[in-house]
Design a protein that fits this description.
The protein has 467 residues and is an alpha/beta fold. The chain has helices at residues 10-24, 41-53, 70-84, 99-110, 122-128, 132-145, 161-168, 189-195, 201-211, 215-220, 227-234, 241-249, 259-267, 273-280, 285-294, 318-327, 331-345, 347-372, 419-429, 461-464; strands spanning 29-34, 58-63, 115-120, 152-158, 180-183, 297-300, 312-315, 380-385, 393-400, 403-411, 435-445, 457-459. The chain has a 5-stranded parallel β-sheet, with helices on both faces. It has a 5-stranded mixed β-sheet with strand order 8-9-10-11-12, sandwiched between helices. A hairpin with a 7-residue loop joins β8 (380-385) and β9 (393-400).
Length: 467
Amino acid sequence: MTSPALIDRTTELTELQVQWNAVEGGAARLVVVYGRRQVGKTFLLSHFLERVRATGVTSVFASGFGSASERQQLAGLAESLRRDLPEAAGLVPVSFSAWADALQWLVALARTRPVLAVLDEVPWLVESTPTLPSLLQQAWDRIRMDGRPPRLLLVLCGSAVATMRRLLGGTGALYGRADRELQILPFDLPTAASVLSRSEPEQVIEAYAACGGYPLHLAAWDEDASTEDNLLRLAATSGSLLLRSGQRLLTDIPHEGGYRRVLHAIGSGADVRAAIGRLADQRTERPLDLLLRTTLVRHRRPLGAPDRTPGRYEIADAYLRFWYDQLWADEELIEGGQGKQILARRRGRWERHLGWVFEEQAREHAVRLAQSGTLPSSAVYGPWWATRGPQAEIDVLGLVGRRTVMVGEAKWDRRPLHSREFAYLMERAKHAPDPVSDLVVAFWSRGGLSSQMHGALGFTPADMVRK
């Protein structure tokens, strides 16, 4: 059976191939791959394994298990070795007595031939064996000092982003050991558009607002059905994919310590420490620190503001934000068959969510436009709002040094934008950081710009979904 095609991920595949080429040349390499659940890490590695196996190379894929003991994890590893190495199955023990023995067995095998070994769900392995990172560190340090290292590419993969970053961080056991760290991110909007190649640009943005950049979600979107029908089938039906995936994304966030209460508070709209603490009814310092490391939450300051400026906490992931906005609080009602009514009741929230996603994608599009030279290439782009004086907020602001060189607005609006939107944006631009006299002005809108908008750049969803 032919595996489904791998979409995008060209950079990641190239990086893995570079490391494998080094192994075939006589080196040992350690690669760490991490990213949120459902972004396609395992699918990427399986695709690479197939490519390597097609050349006759020895390769192994083993995965950790949730809530398993060390003995069960080691037995699972031995079973994977027997499955993937039938010619050496008789040499694999029924189970390894310790991780040190398992690692030593892999190293010994790699002294006889090049070996690609993938250990998936490493955080679950660490959960059952807290000393495993130190054992890996010691084993890899010995390999590095070996004058004739084993020809081994060891790939460690994990979905618990905070745990993986802690292993790689300054105090982590694997700090400085990995030859390559690959963070696998959800698809961006243009890549999502390549998955939904038959959809109109506006429909792609609507699908992206519900599915995020997760390949499994996007593949389930029916391009021949309306957005409303897709939402009903994928999100508002008992047991549906988008209804259940939110809880799956939270798998790696501990129940203890109030981490989930703090996340739920942010998902409910609390965006400053005091409000988050009141809603979660607890202290927030440690939970916020972990949630930021998961990358599901971010702390956003106005572009160019000093680090001490109080910012806003928000759900950074488009799908998870959709799940909190539309599904989380009413999950029981949806499971009970009232999904259609829930979608109708939350229609206003869906429109606001679409507006938020459209703004986010306008900012990402601005970065791509700067790379192509359409917008000032020396600027950094992001949101800006006034922290003192008159209230003012700008969706897309471009900053060179401390000077504003570009201002932009994103409106999920079908009508063409008129001169009043231009005048309102220019009034707010007066409060931006030291604006230059020849500001670049841009608008993102479904309806484009009217003929009155002389001198302004206009971008539509069709522009935004292009690579």
